[in-house]
């Protein structure tokens, strides 16, 4: 007599049911990641704005110390001015707070979406440095 090998129908059905249960519990976590993606995009832009502000401020200190630099610092009087420090500016769907900053001072600024329905509960914060460029 020949011995057959393989899975029985019951075993196959059990595996399919287990996979279905796993998919039903895991799938909703991965289907709608748009909120997390929007929040991560804001955090990335806030990081870029903070870095650009710090570099511009450091460059202005170097210029005031009469050191030779290859880049001319840009005047920053408000948080909103920081957007001009990034190549291409910030995306048109985002906006920066408009807090005023005095020369040499720092201010906490926020960046968010222009459509306030898309904003997370806490907006990302970046540090902006005030810079006055004298001709």
Automatic annotation (TrEMBL):
Pfam families: N_methyl. SUPFAM superfamilies: Pili subunits (SSF54523). Keywords: Membrane, Methylation, Transmembrane, Transmembrane helix. It is found in: Membrane. This is Type II secretion system protein. Its main location: membrane. It comes from the Bacteria. InterPro entries: N_methyl_site, Pilin-like. The keyword Transmembrane helix applies. It is a single-pass membrane protein. The chain crosses the membrane at residues 12-31.
């Amino acid at each position: 007599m020949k011995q057959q090998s393989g899975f029985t129908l019951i075993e196959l059905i059990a595996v399919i049911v287990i996979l279905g249960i796993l998919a039903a519990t895991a799938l909703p976590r991965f289907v709608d990641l748009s909120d997390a993606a929007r929040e991560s995009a804001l955090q990335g832009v806030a990081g870029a704005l903070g870095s650009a502000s710090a570099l511009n401020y450091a460059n202005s200190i170097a210029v005031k110390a009469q050191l030779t630099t290859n880049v001319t610092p840009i005047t920053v009087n408000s948080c909103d001015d920081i957007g001009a420090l990034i190549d291409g500016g910030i995306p048109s769907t985002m906006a920066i707070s408009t807090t005023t900053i005095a020369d040499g001072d720092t201010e906490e600024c926020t960046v968010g979406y222009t459509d306030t329905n898309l904003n997370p509960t806490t907006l990302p914060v970046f540090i902006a440095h005030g810079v006055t460029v004298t001709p």
